[in-house]
Design goal:
- The protein is mainly α.
- It has 3 helices and 2 strands, in the order αααββ.
- Strands 1-2 form a two-stranded antiparallel ribbon.
- The radius of gyration is 31 Å and the shape is elongated.
- The relative contact order is 0.08.
């Protein structure tokens, strides 16, 4: 399926692209090349081939699950206006 000039103009209008008259022939060629590549890919027999989640079938390296930060709870709560049982106390705003 080859696109013609009128097809490209219609596609450009629908996509709200402003193409100059000089750009239409090169755009037509580019779109025809893309459609040709799609036709080639669709012609390949993929029967019996499982889909891949990643083209390299790579696995992610995981780091060790270790605590990386110190507990600063006491320092943060020491400057709070009101604390009770390890929780911050705030004034009631909804009645």
């Amino acid at each position: 399926m080859a696109l013609e000039r009128s097809d490209v103009e219609k596609i450009a209008h629908l996509a709200r692209l402003g193409l100059n008259d000089g750009d239409i022939p090169s755009t037509t060629d580019t779109l025809n090349n893309i459609l040709g590549l799609i036709d080639q890919m669709q012609a390949v027999d993929t029967q019996g081939i499982e889909p891949l989640a990643h083209p390299l079938e790579a696995t992610q390296r995981l780091r060790a699950d270790l605590v990386g930060e110190a507990n600063h709870r006491e320092a943060y709560q020491s400057i709070a206006p009101a604390v009770q049982d390890g929780l911050y106390l705030v004034p009631k705003v909804i009645e």
